[in-house]
Structures are given as C-alpha cells and as structure tokens.
Specification:
Strand order of the largest sheet: 1-2-3-4-8-7-6-5
Number of helices: 4
CATH topology of the largest domain: BirA Bifunctional Protein, domain 2
CATH architecture of the largest domain: 2-Layer Sandwich
Radius of gyration: 18 Å
CATH superfamily of the largest domain: Bira Bifunctional Protein, Domain 2
Distance between the termini: 55 Å
Helix content: 10-25%
CATH class of the largest domain: Alpha Beta
Number of domains: 2
Number of strands: 13
C-alpha cells in the first residue's frame, strides 16, 4: 500500500480494516490509489493525524488542523443505490454526533452544520474509482483560524476514537451482512428532519458567481436531490452539481408560499 510518500500505514483494526497515517497528502487520494492496485475489503478505512493536501467539492480545499478528523472509507460499486453514498455518510455523521449530544443539520449538498451557529462543522467528498467509491469526511474538533464560516466542537473525542466509531457505525449500518442494516426510509426521514433551512427561502448557484435561482426548500428525495418551490409555487429539483445553497429573506411577492 502506498501513502503519498508520507510513511507506512499502521493497521488499527482488523475488521473492517482501519489504517492510520501520521501525515498524508490526502486520505481520499491514498485510498483511491490502494483501490487501483488491488482489491480492498468493503469498508476499508484510512485516517490521518495530519492532512496537508485535503480537497473539497469542485476543486475547493479542505483545511486541516492536526487533531481534527480526516477519514476515508472504500465501498464497492452498487448499481442503482438509493439513497446515494453521500447521504448515507451524512446520515452516519449526524447519527454519531447526535449520540454525542452535538446538535447538527445537513446543509445540501454535502456539509454538516452546527445547529448553534449554522456554521460548517463537517464536509463530505465522494469520489468514484473503478469498482467502487471512496467516501471522505472531515470533522472539526478545532477551528481553522483562516475560515470565518467554519465551526468546531472541542467536546468531541480525539480523532482516533472518532475514526474507530464512525467507520464502525458506517460499516454496521450499510455494509454488514447482518439484518440490522438501516433502511432507506429511515435514512430519508432522519435526513429530512435534520435538513438545514427546510421550509425557508434560499438562493442557489450552479455555474458562475451569480445566483441561479430562488425558492423555498421542501426536502430531499431518495435520489439525494433537493426539492425547491419557486416564487410562483412551481416545484423543481436542484442538480447534484449545484455549487452552493444559502438562506435569504423571503421575497414579498412570494410570502403566501
């Protein structure tokens, strides 16, 4: 197994396999490389103490502070998987945080926000590889000083305990052969209950700096897309490629909706 030239991975748990690297360029990149060079056990995970080249969606950077969680999990390809892996991992993170009495919300399409201040606590990045996908999650115990829109929660356990618990919860919920696998109905009910700004007005951006549209959030469907009611009451589904969604004050002409 390679590690972006940043040391030899240490096996922390036998099954599902969980590896640790003190320093890594990107846990997602390393795990993708492992998947290309040979078969991996479903649920194989990699986390690191320090990540120096983390990525977010659409080329954005994920700034890491040592002690925060950066974890990637490999999953095998599954045809017509609904809800998609992004929502399944989001459900896992929210469920874990709820057990730790940290109240959070899902911000479409792939962020977890702390309810107390509506700032980003966690981000998710899903990347396809041959035969499967790598699911990455970053979770802040400590705040990156340069990010004004980020949040943190120092009451959470250290990154070692979080990696063990989150990866085990994900495996037992979605990859285990036992019959206690979480149902799609429960996932969607929980996520819609935790959806940030549900019932409120938002603008969204697709390509370019200007807002693409305005509407009120209705909820998530099974495919992972966000349903919106526009100012005339017409329904539409946001594309998965949407760049951002931000809350706004309701327009006067649409107050009846």
């Amino acid at each position: 197994m390679t590690s972006d030239g940043q040391g030899v991975p240490r096996l922390v748990r036998d099954f599902p396999p969980l590896f640790y690297l003190e320093t890594v360029a990107s846990t997602n990149s390393s795990l993708k490389e492992w998947a290309r060079t040979g078969p991996l056990v479903p649920g194989t995970g990699l986390y690191a103490g320090n990540q120096i080249g983390g990525r977010g969606r659409r080329g954005n950077r994920w700034l890491h502070v040592p002690g925060n969680l950066v974890l990637s999990i490999w999953v095998p390809e599954q045809t017509f998987l609904l809800p998609p892996w992004t929502l399944r991992l989001a459900w896992t993170v929210l469920s874990y945080l709820e057990k730790k009495t940290v109240r959070c919300r899902l911000k479409y399409p792939n962020d977890i926000h702390l309810s107390a201040n509506s700032l980003k606590l966690s981000g998710i990045l899903v990347e396809q590889v041959s035969g499967g996908a790598v699911l990455g999650v970053g979770l802040n115990r400590f705040l990156p000083e340069s990010l004004s829109k980020a949040s943190a929660c120092e009451d959470l356990p250290d990154h070692h305990e979080m990696a063990l618990s989150l990866s085990e919860l994900f495996f037992s919920s979605f990859l285990s052969t036992e019959k206690n696998v979480v149902t799609s109905q429960r996932i969607m009910e929980d996520l819609n209950r935790s959806l940030l700004w549900k019932g409120e007005w938002v603008v969204w951006k697709e390509d370019g700096p200007s807002p693409t549209g305005l509407g009120k959030i209705v909820g998530l469907d099974l495919s992972g897309r966000l349903e919106i009611l526009d100012a005339t009451g017409n329904s539409r589904k946001l594309p998965e490629t949407v760049r951002s969604v931000e809350r706004v004050e309701p327009p006067e002409r649409a107050s009846r909706w």
